[in-house]
Amino acid sequence: xxxxxxxxxxxxxxGKESPTEVFEHAAAAGVNVLALTDHDTTTGWAEGAExxxxxxxxxxxxxxxTTRAKVRVGERDRFISVHMLAYLPDPxxxxxxxxxxxxxxxxxxRAMGITDKLAKxxxxxxxxxxxxxEDGATIxxxxxxxxxxxxxxxxxxxxxxxxxxxxxxxxxxATDTTDxxxxxxxxxxxGGVPIIAHPLTDVGANASRGDLxxxxxxxxxxxxxxxxxxxxxxxxxxxxxxxxxLARKHDLIHTGSSDYHGVHGxxxxxxxxxxxxxxxxxxxxxxxxxxxxx
Length: 294
Ligand code: AMP
Ligand code: MN
Ligand code: MN
Ligand code: MN
What we know:
- This protein is of the alpha/beta class.
- Helix content is about 40%, strand content about 15%.
- The chain contains ten helices and eight strands.
- It has helices at about 20-30, 45-55, 95-120, 125-130, 140-150, 155-160, 180-190, 215-220, 235-250, 275-285, and strands at about 5, 35, 60-75, 75-85, 180, 195, 225-230, 255.
- Helix 1 (about 20-30) links the parallel strand 1 and strand 2.
- One manganese (II) ion binds near residues 9, 14, 39 and 261.
């Protein structure tokens, strides 16, 4: 059966390898179809598609769109970060392209803010952070982590994320970005297929059904959400059952993928989780904004 992996990153965002290298590693791992889904950018597509064609594997154009949703927790509204995968969107669709452009700008301002905070305690500079990044790549905390590794503050990205870059830590700043509902609408208008990336990664292994924000998900489904990434190393087993149940109830797509960031970017390995061919067929049938090359 074909190995279909629908989530990966190159150095056009926070992956460690060029789009060409990502597809070379995919071919070596026996992957048959790979989606390149860099954060908030499509600038890796052309190179990825060319490498895929040369290597004889399928290329799926995608984006991992940074969004945030307002959720009610008790008496208070809280913002949560939601990563939305968009498959086969039209990269020329201006309202979406403009929104992504704004997010990349917000990410930069936010990364500067985090770097400023860190500079009070560590010898980090903005120039050093930028040295960790390809020209024009979408910036994220991993570039700051790489700068801290370079300085010898931490051994690797994982240690940086466990410590100083943790979202509950003193240096954290959230990215000001697109509302999740607006992102779903824009992705659909662009001909893309919106699927929530790694949902519910924050619920513990011992979570109970009450921890499933079912109403919130159903509102997203009403707004045009088409599926969930269920099989992902960070989605707890208990949450997978709820997500599959929701997907069945609403006849949605469910996917599985690696979220590869390079051999040295994250432990995630190409093809470690895969998408069923019939689910992939549904994405191909629904996505009209750009074409997969198979
Ligand atoms: P940001 O988008 O700037 O909030 O940073 C989040 C990104 O950091 C995610 O997309 C992951 O790729 C990466 N990340 C999160 N946790 C880790 C970790 N423990 N090790 C390596 N990379 C991580
Ligand atoms: Mn990432
Ligand atoms: Mn993500
Ligand atoms: Mn990702």
